[in-house]
Amino acid sequence: MKPAQAVILCGGLGARLGHRTAATPKPLLAVDGSPFLDVLLFEIGRHGIKDVLLLAGFEGEQVARYAASTPIAARFGLDVKVAIEPSPAGTGGALKLAEHLLAPEFLLLNGDSWFDVNLLDLAPAAGPDWLISMRLRGVPDASRYGLVTLDGEQVTSISEKPPSPGPGVINGGVWLARRELVRFLTPKCSMESDVLPDLAAQGRVAGKVCDGYFIDIGVPADLERAQTEVPARRRRPAAFLDRDGVLNVDSGYVGSRERWRWIDGARAAVKRFNDLGWYVFVVTNQSGVARGYYGEEDVEALHRQVFGELADLGAHVDDVRFCPYHTEGTVERYRRESDWRKPGAGMILDLMRHWPVDREASLLIGDSDSDLEAARRAGVSGRLFSGGSLDRFVREQIDPAQAGAP
Ligand SMILES: [Mg+2]
pLDDT digits over 366-403, tens only? Predict the structure, then answer.
């Protein structure tokens, strides 16, 4: 399910970072040359969530200026609002103050950490009573955080920071929350140390351990580590998926939802790539546009609809390229050669210009020789899908050693 809104906690003082945060809110500290918040907005944007609310406090005007100017908002068409608390209210207090701005169910993120998980798959499998569902991470030293215990998908306890260093399971700062949660908040309180432990004791917190990349920039050593690790982690393998014959049954010039039939296992395959931390791109020849069977806007509307449906399963497509041109087209403006038309590599190369892709680890899956030739020309490994379950095929194609998000 796709949350309607993403809320980011940006109000912390960053005391442990000393002079670095004397005049700058922690989420705006530079990581690889850009404000850290750009990393979070990029993730929110590529998962298709458009409404963003930044809860700011300390130096809130800087957060507001950031929201008005970040290129990530323009890139993904995000609507970024900022709420500034008049005096320090803690993470829970900030949320309570913003109650009138909250969607009934929203994604909630810490503004100074990044936990690389599937943001559309945060709801627990069962249990109607949860108010907040959290993603948890095992870490070698949990002494900076509270320890979390689980029974199935139910969080049974959240305790104070352990006194001495040692491994443990911690709260990863990524939650799906229900607005009713604010009934449990006081004007000044901390989510981590006041609210969540109480809610866990009442059985209202769900949780699941994930092994995605996690970093918290709250101490100098980790802020330093983030400078190289974060850009490296954002450079992901990509699944370049042909459309007709791979995602949908190829019945010839499919230009409307009525004629679209998902291939067996196609939606599960997309989610598999999402869960593994790969980008998912669709690259498709659509000469039906040049032939006058449908327009570019019909193709775009179809893609919005069918790829939008993936959210119900916790899956998404990051980006799409289609080629409307053909040398034998009947529509004048589309009658031409194009290096975007497979076996040309244009669509794949364009995606690699717009996204940080680990080309060597990427795959293209297609059902024709021209797909594989396009992959070869782009320097990407191509795999021929000849029917059956796409998810089973993907499972067989992914080398378990390269698949992992660590
Ligand atoms: Mg095909």
Answer: 999 999 999 999 999 999 999 999 999 999 998 765 55
Instruction: From 273, 222, 346, select the one nearest 120 (Cα to Cα).
Output: 273
Q: Pick the catalytic residue: 51, 121, 216, 242?
A: 242
With 0-12 / 13-18 / 19 or more C-beta atoms within 10 angstroms meaning exposed / middle / buried, residue 273 is buried
Model confidence over 301-348: pLDDT tens digits? Answer: 999 999 999 999 999 999 999 999 999 999 999 999 999 999 999 999
Secondary structure of the chain: what % helix, strand, coil (to 5)?
Answer: 35, 25, 40
- The span from the CA of 27 to the CA of 32, in Å, is 13
C-alpha–C-alpha distance, residues 1 and 314, integer Å: 5
CA of 400 to the centre of ligand 1 (A): 26
Out of 134-143, 215-224, 237-246, give the one with best mean pLDDT.
Answer: 237-246
Say how many Å lie between the CA of residue 162 and the centre of ligand 1: 55
Reported as a single tens digit per residue, the pLDDT across 42-81 is 999 999 999 999 999 999 999 999 999 999 999 999 999 9
Instruction: For residue 318, indicate whether it is catalytic.
Output: no
Q: What's the mean pLDDT in 18-34? A: 91
User: Is the distance from CB of 7 to CB of 55 less than 8 angstroms?
Assistant: yes
Q: What is the pLDDT of residues 262-301, one digit of tens each?
A: 999 999 999 999 999 999 999 999 999 999 999 999 999 9
**Catalytic residue (one of 51, 244, 318, 391):** 244
Active site residue 369: no
Structural domains of the chain in order of their starting residue, each with its CATH number: 5-234 (3.90.550.10), 238-402 (3.40.50.1000)
What's the gap in Å between 238 CA and the centre of ligand 1? 18
Cα of 241 vs centre of ligand 1, distance in Å, is 9
Distance 262 CA to ligand 1 centre (A): 13
CA-to-CA dists, residue 265 to 153, 209, 269, 383, angstroms:
26, 25, 6, 16
Helix (H, G, I), strand (E, B) or coil at 30: strand
- Report CA(243)–ligand 1 centroid distance (Å): 6
Counting Cβ atoms within 10 Å, is residue 351 exposed (0-12), middle (13-18) or buried (19+)?
buried
The CA 282 to ligand 1 mean position distance, Å, reads: 11
